[in-house]
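Q: Could you write out the predicted structure for this multi-component system? I'm mainly interested in how the pieces pack against one another.
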Amino acid sequence: MTDHLSRQENHHPLPARKAWLLGAALALAALAANAQTAHSVTLAWNPSTGIPLSTYRLYQGTASQVYTSSNSVGNVTNTTVSGLSAGTTYYFAVSAIATNGLESLLSSGVSCTVPVTNTPAPSNSTLPSIVLTAPASGASYTAPATFTISASVSANGHTITQVQFYNGATLLGQATASPYTYACSACGAGTYNLCAMAVYDTGSTVASAPVTVTVTPAAAASVVTIWPSTATPKLADDGADSPVELGVKFRSDAPGTITGIRFYKAAANTGTHVGNLWTTNGVNLASATFSGETASGWQQVNFPTPVAIASNTVYVASYHCTIGHYSEDDSYFASAGVDNPPLHALANGVSGGDGVYAYGSTSLFPSLSYNSANYWVDVAFSAAAPLPAPWQTVDIGSVGTAGTASISGGSYTVAGAGALSGTADSFHFLYQPLSGNGQIQGQILSVQNTGTNACAGVMIRETLTSGSRYAFMGVSPSGAFRSSQRNATSGSTSVTPGGTGSAPNLWACLVRSNNSFSAYQSINGSNWTLVNSTNITMATNIYVGLGVASGVTGTLDTSVVTNLTVVP
Amino acid sequence: MLVGSLALVLVLGPTGASLHQACTRKDVGAARAIARCGPASENLSDSAGGEYRGLPEALAETGGPPYDASLLAAAEKETDLDRKGAVLEQAAASVADNALAAALGALVNQRSPEAAELRRLLMRRWAAADPAAAAAWTQRLPEETGRDLIEQVAIAWADSDLDKAVSWAEALPAGAVAQGAALGVAYEAARTSPAVALDLACGLPPSNSRDDLLVHAASQWAGMDPAAAVAWADQVPDAELRQRLLAAMAVGCAKQDPSGAAALVALSLSAGAEQNRAAVAVAQRWAQSSPQEAAAWVQQFPDASLRAAAGESLRALSAEPEALTPGP
């Protein structure tokens, strides 16, 4: 009846695509333990569909993902396992066996701990029951994670003395009074099989169904520079000179942020130094004065706020010095740049001359180049985490400067140039598909003040072209709500002003019901006011997301949205 | 039309091979006749500067532009974009229906962005009322201006008579103007007749714009006839484009047939970002009809971070009890 496996089954990571495909086709559901007594457990699973099955196979073990036995249970969707030992945690998973013999991947596992019954409860009474109400099964957190385990207990006439919380067989803590909760803090990465056990009367116990949560490792934020700190110029000190700005043109393969500017300092290069980041058309994106410099070698200043940069877009990093004595290696960029992916210092000619300089008593855009010289200016770059699926990001229309978008910890940061106006838009769009009816709402934490025409908010848009039909509900930097729309492709934009609020208490919502679009505003996320309702004929499969426009081509506006929910 | 589209896509190549030769063309004789309804052979362009030399009769007769020049001047000075748009709407409304051609003629050499915007508004009105005449007039313009305004004609014509708009767009001389017209017509067609849009798209040279249009139209088609759409996309030889098309189709049909969409994602898409995005999007739609089945499918995702992202999406959906009803 029972097959004993000679090997330890560890099914994670799964063997990539082929096995997943079979499992997906079978659509095997996760197990759910829905009944438990002292010495048996009943397990149920959703039926597989699409492929004829001969049987399901139940796997069992006493360690997570290590299954030491399995047996066929027939073409059924539940089974009861008996003969379990009190106090032991058992782990189960199930697979589906097709009639052609192929076996699916294992389902996700479930576990349960058989309670130790110190004193049997009266057989003629209703036992207490306990269920974990939080976290949700399958919840995922990023380490170091903090979450609260909550249990709901129905005493059914018994006296509940305490509720114990377990991760597998490990006791995490207990609560002696309702609400029965336990706060997990600083939880490391891993899978947590959570269970709560109510202790009642004179020591009898009853356990909840287990809940599995995952804590994933936090992504390491590594800073990348073009040159390592061990790199040194051939000519560290080019002698005295007038005040001058010296720079390098660079690009990144990936979006991210420039956290600071670096330069190589000769001992005689004293005085105040100011680091700058520019677009190639001379817009200053950030500036900071170096402090705490060492006598010589690489120096770095960090911007108060890291500057988001787009991928594959050329920028200029520079610093200003007052007395010369800068480093200069002639012909350095003459035939090649410097590649330290994702960063690339450009070879001369790729985007005009490189390196670059400009004389002036204060910081100014370095637009000149001479002899492909490297002045040993560098950046500190932190790559943006990839957008979680299904989000994508794009510049719509002619924005002048590439926008960016990032999602971290529930905050959606979007930087966009251009304007939502006229017969064609230009802005940055963080979006995902919307099929038919749907909704998006979010709290607009901040809108950078780049002028009266700047705006940030939620958008439903038919296409990714600049003249697309759309509905938008957002706010201006002053906190004025505004709904705007384009009812006809490449037609004019109409605007409906709403009320006013102040960041961060600015909430916007758009609802699509067939071709009816309703725009709402709120200052608390609970009480909503309809700003505009209109009919716009759109295709069924369109886009929904966040739109940010600075109101000016070539200037980025960085806005932040949180508490974003999308019903796509 | 579906047969035509199928034949077209068979030659969609990855490196820009011409699609025109293999396109299944309709009888374009009528369309060419429409395209010739204006004096297309008349050369109105200045060979040096490309400016429009024709002086509209209305302008000559009245001695002034047939629009409110003060409103255009006000729009040019206005810095608030909302007010600027409103002023331009007023300026457009100041032109009588029978003076649209004259007003456009008077504006055609003005370089300000506001003048260009006013031209678009006026051309849209004209094209909505008489697309053939508007199209003929536009074809006489220098390419840059013509390309800007031809889109207005294409959209308006497609909205009023898609068949004639398609014939007209297909009969235009090859070039940027024709491509702009095809894009304009095709995006409008995609809303209700995605196969027509795909047919037009397949007549365009390879570009990001063409591929974006293909994906958009394919998504609509999948929502109407997923089997035919997938069979069509399966024959696209450009692997990257095929992935985009199939991903969009899976999402496009996921609300109607979530398990079929899931199978499409799993079986037809290669591992990678496109598959990941489609998988989560399909799971989101599946969860709206069957949260348990969607959750079970998500649990089978081999990538832990994707599984987590999808799980988070599903929890967000389930935690939105007042979906579609945010108002008071």
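A: Regarding packing and overall arrangement: Confidence is low (pLDDT under 50) at residues 1-38, 118-124 of chain A.
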